[in-house]
Design a protein that fits this description.
Length: about 120
């Protein structure tokens, strides 16, 4: 989209549209993840994969990069039609706490708008 890199497949340059189609065929929920990634980057955050922690993304504070700061939140992407049990959400909150981050659910609606819901453990 910003024309900063050229991606080639079999020596032929892929358009942004073809690249998204290629990725969507190989990655579950690619479009929803792409919308969230793009939104976070446009807001000035450094976004990295959260795969090894069981999340979609790790988010670093604005202006910071890995090595300069610890990630401040982890993101799991959902669509408005996804259903999650309290047990699943509790597991994600507990895991995010173990890595000293805040768990955020990014919900992409039918109009491709993103709503962010931060869920934290409350200890009395």
């Amino acid at each position: 989209e910003k024309k900063k890199i050229d991606v080639k497949k079999a020596g032929k340059k892929l358009s942004a549209k073809k690249l998204r189609e290629y990725a969507a065929a190989r990655e579950a929920r690619f479009y929803s993840k792409y919308i969230v990634f793009k939104d976070l980057r446009e807001r000035g955050y450094c976004v990295k994969t959260g795969f090894k922690f069981g999340f979609d993304f790790r988010v670093y504070p604005r202006g910071k990069r890995p090595g300069q700061a610890h990630s401040k939140q982890v993101i799991k992407v959902f669509t408005q039609d996804d259903g999650k049990s309290m047990i699943e959400l509790s597991r994600m909150v507990r895991l995010s706490g173990n890595i000293k981050t805040i768990f955020t659910a990014a919900v992409v609606d039918s109009e491709n708008d993103v709503n962010y819901y931060t869920i934290q453990r409350i200890t009395p």
